[in-house]
Amino acid sequence: MIDITNLIITHGNKTCLQIDALQIPQKGAIALIGPNGSGKTTLIKSLTGIQKINTQAKLLINQKAFADYNNKQRAQLLGYIPQRFNPCWNQTVEELLALALSRTIASSEVMIKACQQFELMELLKRHWNILSGGEQARVLAAMAFMGDPALLIADEPGAALDVKHRLQLIEHLVAYGKQQLAIICLHELDLVFRYFEKIILLDQGKLIFYGSTHDLINNPLLDQTFGVFFKRIKQDEGYLLYPKLSNP
Ligand SMILES: Nc1ncnc2c1ncn2[C@@H]1O[C@H](COP(=O)(O)OP(=O)(O)OP(=O)(O)O)[C@@H](O)[C@H]1O
C-alpha cells in the first residue's frame, strides 16, 4: 500500500530523512518510533503531502503519488491526527466535526458515533481555543476517524491525553489496523510493545528497523538507538521496558 524508494529530505545542508526502500502493506497498526529529531514527523509530513519530497523519490500510496489524488480522494485516502493544529478561526467542536464530515462521504450518524466514541457530546458548543490539550486531541482523533480512511496517520496522538483516554485511543487505532492501515508515532515504548505487532524505527534520519515487535524487543539495536539500557519485563500482554542510563 505504501511504497517508498529513494526518499531524501534535506533542510539546508542537513539530511533529516533518508529512506532507500520501504514497503508497508495495506492493513495493520504500525508504531513509528525513534529518538527526538530522528525524522518521524518528517516521514509523516512526507506521507501526508505536507512535506515536499525530492524529485528522485518515489512515494506511492495505493500505487499513486499523493499529488495525483484530487481533494475528495485524498480525504477518503488519508486521516491525519497532527501533533499540533490551529483552525483558521476559532470554530466550535461541532463546526470542526461538520467540516471534517463534509470532506467525506460518511453520513451524520458517523459524526454522532465519533462524538460518543471520543466523549465529545458535552463539548460540541465549546470553541477550540478554550478546550484543554487532551480535549483538543480527542476532537482531532474523531475528525480523522470519521472518514474511514484507507490510511490513518497519528503523530504522538496520546501526548496530551490522560491514561484512560490514551489507552482508549491506542486501542481504537490498533483495532482500526485490523481493517485498514494505521501508522502511529509515539514515544511511549511500553504501549508500543504491548499493543503493536509492527514497528518502524528511525535514528538520525535513517530507517534502521522495519519489522515485527517480536524481532525488535530483544535486539540491542533498541538500546543503542535510544542511548539507554532497557530492562525488559515480560507481561501477559507484552513487555514493560524499564530504561536506565547506565548498564546495570
Ligand atoms: N523545516 C525545517 N528546517 C530545518 N530543520 C528541520 C525542519 N524540519 C525538521 N527539521 C529537522 O529535522 C530533524 C527531524 O525532525 P522531526 O521533526 O522529523 O523529528 P522527530 O523524530 O519527529 O522528533 P521528535 O521526537 O522530537 O518530535 C530534526 O533535527 C529537525 O530539527
From TrEMBL:
Residues 2-229 form the ABC transporter domain. Keywords: ATP-binding, Nucleotide-binding, Transport. Transmembrane segments: none annotated. SMART domains: AAA (SM00382). The keyword ATP-binding applies. Gene3D superfamilies: P-loop containing nucleotide triphosphate hydrolases (3.40.50.300). Signal peptide: none annotated. InterPro entries: AAA+_ATPase, ABC_transporter-like_ATP-bd, Metal_Ion_Import_ABC, P-loop_NTPase. GO terms for molecular function: ATP binding; ATP hydrolysis activity. Belongs to the ABC transporter superfamily. This is ABC transporter ATP-binding protein.
